[in-house]
Write a structure and sequence with these properties.
- The protein is of the alpha+beta class and about 625 residues long.
- The chain is built from 17 helices and 25 strands.
- Helix 10 packs across helix 11 (about 435-455) and helix 12 (about 470-485) runs antiparallel to helix 14 (about 515-525).
- The longest helix is centred in the C-terminal third of the chain and has 33 residues, at about 585-615.
């Protein structure tokens, strides 16, 4: 079979100018008449997916040319929906025009009303459901005499449940329902209860419901677990193929409760400035392309860090053990070696497969105390105290370099919910961002930039972390808000991150500072993954990707495979495999899993905040 993705892409390009019958498409794509029936099925599937549109005259065109838009619908409280399309105004969809669409479905919509105002949405209706996001929906069960129904939060209609398919659910139970009929204009959707989650007032029940409703599975399949169990833990034969860095005083610096230690660092002074080693867990050694484990990692896209649990991208045998850079253990890594001059300019770099042995498992708290002069900790870590001093020096130099080029640094407080042993809220505190946290961030950004530039100039397919320039219309709206505080972004035709950073620095520590920083952040584009290097506006960086967290991000794992291809001079089979040939789809998928994870983390954190405030009502 030919490469259908390329042929669809070519067809869509041609349809921008022309319209074709099916016979003309056969000729255009040089398809054989002998397989006419098969190719008709393919074209029909493209039309079903909303990629092309069949007009009444029998000719195919692009849906966009006929006033249709394709995207993922967001439904709020079941009464209305929105379709957000990058670079365009969002489309409002009234409840009567949702046409059985559920939250997260990919839909084709028709524009009913357009708006000339840049800050007002258009109005549309769902023309076709292209792809259902999931067939299991969570909602509250209500029992009637001979049947039941479930009220989902983000769905336009109740789901009918026949008496035989209630699974014993009682009125008020939070349940998961598998839908087998999506409904039409006359009939409601129909389904069956597949699990009774519990009391909707219970915290753990609500969290379980949110996970199910977002299609997130905590447990790995038996196939994945069996595959992990078969992984060979003895890598002694691999050592001679790698650079040995076990003699260096390499350390990890992470939060006290972190179990998946991706990165380790080492710094030494040189005659010209500093040498930085950033060693990252070589997850690609264990997670082979095309395996069940790899397929599951791609499906998950990233680890999810919730208040009460971590849902890892990889099974814990890998994330917390084999791959994690635990102290005093030989570990396989990729190392980026960067030489800086005294002003922070990169004057040389190299990356290679390595083996390390972390000397200390440091925490941000302890390193910050060392920087503050804690004598007990300085004595405890005396073998690496001098290196920490040099690390801090280099960190400040790198940070000043980023500042000179205009990198944006939002000073927004991060709230941490602390639970007790019973998973009840013990306290809510502001997570401090000290010098240790900033140091690791500086080093990781430097490593990401070096790898991105290397892969870009060597034309090796990779996934980049892109942050595009802000939309001028959004900045105009931002200026209206900033003007109330006496600030203004000048010359919108020449937007530079330094303009925003100047305002952030001026307002840090002021009563209105938090609000202004939030307004600026909301005016920015959302960072995403792309198979092209489009730069990173917020970091004022020409080349950027994610390389430093392959245990918890699939993007980084693919970058490691790309590096392996560069090291092996194009002979590494993984880069030429399925995922690297489908980079665009992978980028869209992992950008989506990241967005969903962040939204889930936000919802659950907010829920714990509400619980905490309810418990402390009336207190000062």
């Amino acid at each position: 079979m030919k490469n259908l993705e390329k042929e669809l892409k070519y067809l869509r390009q041609v349809l921008e100018e022309y319209e074709f019958t099916f016979q003309e498409i056969l000729q255009l794509l040089d398809w054989s008449q002998k397989k006419r029936k098969l190719y008709k099925q393919i074209v029909n599937s493209w039309e079903e997916d909303g990629e092309i549109y069949l007009k009444r005259n029998g000719k195919y065109t692009l849906p966009e040319k006929e006033g249709f838009l394709r995207g993922e619908i967001s439904i709020g409280n079941g009464n209305f929906g929105f379709l957000d399309i990058p670079g365009e105004k969002s489309v409002f969809i009234p409840g009567n025009y949702l046409n059985t669409a559920m939250n997260g479905d990919t839909v084709l919509i028709r524009i009913l009303k357009d708006s000339k105002s840049p800050d007002k949405s258009r109005e549309g209706e769902v023309y076709k459901i292209v792809k259902r996001d999931r067939d299991i929906i969570v909602g509250v069960f209500e029992k009637s005499m001979n049947f039941g129904f479930v009220r989902p939060k983000n769905a336009p209609r109740d789901i009918y449940i026949s008496k035989k398919k209630t699974k014993g659910a009682k009125t008020g139970d939070l349940v998961a329902v598998k839908i087998y009929f999506w409904g039409d204009r006359e009939k409601k959707p129909e389904g069956e209860v597949v699990s009774i989650i519990g009391n909707p007032q219970d915290t753990q029940t609500l969290i379980s419901a949110l996970l199910i409703d977002n299609g997130i599975q905590e447990k790995f399949s038996n196939e994945v677990i069996k595959e992990v169990d078969r992984i060979e833990e003895d890598f002694s034969e691999e050592l001679e193929k790698r650079k040995d860095l076990r003699h260096l005083n390499i350390v990890t610096i992470d939060g006290a409760d972190a179990k998946d230690l991706d990165d380790a660092v080492y710094v030494e002074k040189t005659d010209l400035g500093y040498k930085l080693y950033v060693s990252i867990a070589d997850v690609s050694y264990y997670v082979k392309e095309g395996t069940e484990l790899d397929t599951e990692a791609l499906k998950r896209g990233n680890s999810i860090y919730l208040v009460d649990r971590v849902i890892p991208m990889l099974p814990r045998k890998l994330s917390n053990n084999l791959c994690s850079l635990n102290p005093h253990e030989d570990k396989l890594t990729f190392t980026v070696e960067i030489d800086f001059d005294a002003r922070g300019k990169v004057i040389g770099n190299d990356f290679y497969k390595s083996v390390i042995k972390s000397k200390y498992r440091m925490t941000y708290t302890d390193v910050n105390k060392i920087f503050e002069g804690d004598e007990e900790l300085i004595e405890k870590y005396s073998p690496v105290h001098k290196m920490f001093t040099e690390m801090l020096e280099l960190s400040h130099i790198i940070r000043n370099t980023k500042k000179r080029r205009g990198s944006i640094d939002f000073e927004l407080p991060e709230i941490k919910v602390v639970l007790d042993e019973n998973k009840l809220v013990k306290k809510i505190e502001v997570r401090e961002r000290g010098e240790a946290e900033k140091l690791i961030e500086d080093f990781m950004v430097a490593a990401n930039e070096v790898v991105a530039e290397k892969l870009f100039w060597e034309e090796i397919p990779a996934i980049y972390r892109v942050h595009e320039d802000p939309d001028k219309a959004k900045i105009s709206v931002l200026n209206e808000s900033l003007a109330k505080f006496g600030y203004y972004i000048k010359n919108l035709d020449d937007l530079h991150p330094g303009k925003f950073q100047t305002i952030i620095e001026k307002t840090t520590g002021l009563p209105e500072g938090y609000l202004i920083h939030k307004l600026i952040l909301r005016a920015m584009q959302r960072a995403r993954y792309a198979n092209k290097n489009l730069g990173h506006f917020g970091l004022a960086s020409k080349y950027y990707l994610h390389f430093t967290s392959p245990i918890r991000r699939y993007a980084d794992l693919l970058v490691h495979r790309a590096i392996k291809d560069q090291i092996h001079k194009g002979k590494y089979i993984g880069v030429k495999g399925h995922y690297m040939n489908a980079l665009d789809d992978v980028c869209k998928h992992i950008s989506e899993t990241e967005r969903n994870s962040m939204e889930l983390e936000r919802k659950i954190t907010k829920y714990y905040h509400i619980i905490y405030m309810q418990w402390h009502l009336g207190e000062e």
